[in-house]
């Protein structure tokens, strides 16, 4: 059975290095990670679509990171830590 966890990106933008890190998580853990905003969905494995997707997001626009897979607890923890770090940087 597939599990789903979502995180609010809180108006901050991810760097290319962070996007690549999410891409690697999908490959090493066998899960799917999506970005969702305004009825648009972008799979992290499609890096050529992901960069413009995140760059066109407005700071006030709600964007979610969705993790889907069988055993996603480890991936969810890593994504949560990444987003917490990103929030701290955005608040400076």
Identify the notable features of this structure and list them briefly.
alpha+beta, single chain, 3 helices, 4 strands, four-stranded antiparallel β-sheet, 92 residues
Polypeptide structure, described:
The chain has 92 residues and is α+β, with helices and mostly antiparallel strands. The chain is 45% helix and 24% strand. The chain is built from three helices and four strands. The protein has helices spanning 16-29, 47-55, 73-90; strands at residues 3-8, 32-37, 40-43, 64-69. Strands 1-4-2-3 form a four-stranded antiparallel sheet, with helices on one face. β2 and β3 (40-43) form a beta hairpin. The longest helix is centred in the C-terminal third of the chain and has 18 residues, at 73-90. The protein is globular, with a radius of gyration of 12 Å. The chain starts with a strand and ends with a helix.
